[in-house]
Amino acid sequence: MNTELHPAEVLDAYLHVCTDSSAFVDQFVGPADQLEIRGPVLDCAVGTGFGTIELLQLGHSIVCSDGCAEMLRQFSANSEAAGVPAKPLLLRWNELAYAFPQVFELILCRGNSLAYADAWDSRVDDPSDFSSLVEHLSGMYGAIKPGGYLFVD
Ligand SMILES: C[S@@+](CC[C@H](N)C(=O)[O-])C[C@H]1O[C@@H](n2cnc3c(N)ncnc32)[C@H](O)[C@@H]1O
Question: In this predicted structure, what is the pLDDT of residue 125?
Fold first, then answer.
């Protein structure tokens, strides 16, 4: 029996047991209304879909991406089970500006994701090494429309 769990499965189990996604849904819907976000929105660290899948169920149009294939496999299973099958994109943050130059009115980078930059696929040995932060943020900024927003939590 394979007892090794990928962090995607661990994260997913943890989120289901220990958290309440409705708080995130409210955290998105209120400000998005207030800021009158009408253009395309990207969740660039969608992970297993925590909160974002609920937003898709509510009819919000959100492009979903993540840099980890295993996370996206779990996301696809979750979004399908929730009745909103989505096609997520495998994209690292430093690729966003090239893939989507100045496209999005709002980019979400949620769930403390910057603190876990590249940690999931073990690209970094030391998760507290923030030397690539500028590269990560530049990728995100380059994909935002002039006057658009970046939401980081
Ligand atoms: C802590 S999880 C948060 C996931 C989700 N937003 C949530 O709230 O559950 C961090 C996510 O950031 C993604 N990530 C880390 N480094 C990345 C990078 N360089 N480019 C794209 N995604 C990255 C990971 O694959 C992971 O899915």
Answer: 62
Domain ranges, residue 138:
34-152
Query: Is 13 inside any structural domain?
Result: no
Number of domains within the chain: 1
Pocket of ligand 1 (CB under 6 A): 15, 45-47, 50, 66-68, 71, 92-93, 110-113, 116-118, 120, 136
Predicted pLDDT of residue 127? 59
* Token pair of 76 as six digits: 């696809």
CATH number where 47 lies: 3.40.50.150
d(CA 97, CA 31): 24
Q: What's the CA gap between 38 and 54, in Å, rounded? A: 18
Q: Is residue 126 part of a domain?
A: yes
pLDDT, averaged per 10 consecutive residues of the chain (153 residues), comes to 74 84 87 90 96 95 96 96 96 97 97 84 65 92 97 91
Question: 83 in a domain, yes or no?
Answer: yes
pTM, two decimals, is: 0.92
